[in-house]
Amino acid sequence: MKDAFGAPQSLLVLGGTSEIALATARRLIALRTRTVRLAGRPSPALESAAAELHALGADVRTVDFDALDSASHETTLGKVFAEGDIDTVLFAFGIAGDQGRDEEEPLAAVRVAQTNYTGAVSAGLVCAGALQAQGHGSLVVLSSVAGERVRRADFIYGSSKAGLDAFTQGLGDALHGTGVHVMVVRPGVVRPEPAAETVWAAETVRAAGTVRAAGAVRAAAGFASAPLEASPLTTTPDAVAEAIVTGLRRRSETVWVPGSLRAVMSALRHVPRPLFRRLPI
Description:
Keywords: Oxidoreductase. By secondary structure, the protein is of the alpha/beta class.
């Protein structure tokens, strides 16, 4: 259960090496989260992440989790929930893929879709059922601005995120009134720390073209242009983590990071397709 200050006492992360997820976990531990489970494929990076969070004072254990092995999700995640209630589940796994290669190799494209969408559907329904059974909890899903208006340059990745986003919204509607809170997080381009080489950091860079398109919309509307690296539409793992923690406290359903993306993407969604094709993205 959450403590008297509204902070979750337990956290399950699917995608335990995600830079955004680890930044979120650090913030939550500072707010009295004491139990953390990091789920992911076994690796030195996963063990290192667990050791770092343990040093901050949390009870941390790793969980073997493979997004592509949907048949194992119910058993694997069921064991975690059987140990005790989980206040917050954070979905932070995904792959960027390679658009050029994936168009030529359909099985590679399927892997992107299965990891980003099918794997999340399977794990999401398992976690949602467990949260509903315990009568409380939050499910937080990291989506992407790339799924808001899928572009030619990365439509395989973008379509997988669009599907994930739609699924999460529908799941939130299905769980409304059950005591379970579902929140979609839509970051723009995430500038990773120089030394970070996580799957999520690589994935979020795929949104760069969409943000460039958003910049074109802003320019057309009279906004001053700025380099991508300095754009107010880019963000950092710490900023996303802060937005997640704030969204949990407010029980938000949708979180944009940065917040200015909401208005920009609202405009971009309504750009006619013939014009959208000509945008420099």
